[in-house]
Amino acid sequence: MLSIPVDVALQEAENLHHWSLDDAEQLQVVGITEEMIAELPVRAGACREAQSIWNKDYRSQQEAQKEWAIQSPQAYDLRNDLLQSLRFAYRRNEALLSRVSAITDGSGHADMIQDLNDIAVLENPAPLTAIGFDLTQLDLAATRADELADLLAEANGDKADYNESKLIRDKAYTYLKELVDEIREAGKYVFRKNKNRLKGYSSQYRRKHRQSDVENIN
Q1: 3-class DSSP assignment, residue 105
Q2: Is 218 inside any structural domain?
């Protein structure tokens, strides 16, 4: 079945509200009350608000993805440079080298972030100081690990606010659609022999696309 964009569905719900008001008396016979009709713009308004909030969070995700594309190569370079320094500083200490090797296991963005954090908590500064290594780089690794973890979550849409806003939007849309479908079904039955009134109880968006499909076939 053709999926209707949310903004179109919202406008069609508003249109249905005004259309069915004129048929309130006939619809009452089949169980569609005036209160149900009046509920349409209320549910549409709630869904519109939820859609706006989700759109904001979705745009934030897209912005995070762009920022991740900029920052992640720099983070990989930092990780790799730090590992080279660690290997050189610990080259005569098998125990420390094995810890560095363990850090390098795995792959992927999440693993890179974990690598930076693991590097930051290594507690053997003396060999690093001996080769002129800037120990503040370890603090930088810790800071970048925290920042990148948040950025990656935003880019992947894993942040709680993103998931929650989408869930609320979906629930609001479903709540609206249930009422729209109920009133439309009733209207199609009541006015099954009245084409002038019947047309207001179907989706204009779907009608247009069905007509377009037929024309394309022909």
Answers
A1: coil
A2: no
